User: Fold this.
Amino acid sequence: MYIALLRGINVGGHNKIKMADLRKMFEKMNMPHVQTYIQSGNVLFESNETEEQLVEKVEHQILAEFGLTISVIIRTATEMEDIVLICPFSKNAIQEAEAEADTQWERLYVAMLLGAPQQENIDRIHMYKNDREDYQVAGRDIYFLFHDSVRNSKLATNLHKLEVPTTMRNLRTMNKLVSMAKAMETK
Assistant:
């Protein structure tokens, strides 16, 4: 079971792809049991191909069908579950960030990268870390804890400095994807 995470679709009226059309595209690519979750481009599916093959194939097909150049990050259902389980921030740190919040925005996010970032590129974003925004790198995933909204985050807006394709999801979305994958596996 795989989960494809598309970067930057259906944001601010740009790179529009309807989830029904995205599902059909995956089905035409002979990927069974396709499900999507919310408009940000989360697709659960089955395949015997490797992650590298799937990234290339899906990106190519999105370009062919929708005329969009979109980065696709893929994780197995097991990898996604591990990402959720190994969150490096303590419960106290998360609760503190949530208690200080003046909005209902999520505080915990994970940026999933196509590959592990080089240390020199991590150093480029480190300068944006502050007492209101923290991060922890775990291989090819980066965990973020925001005391304020992610929308105003200097860390989040400078992820391009990692020079690796990346996409970010909040913990609520990650948990939902994990539960959907588990439900699909039991069928």
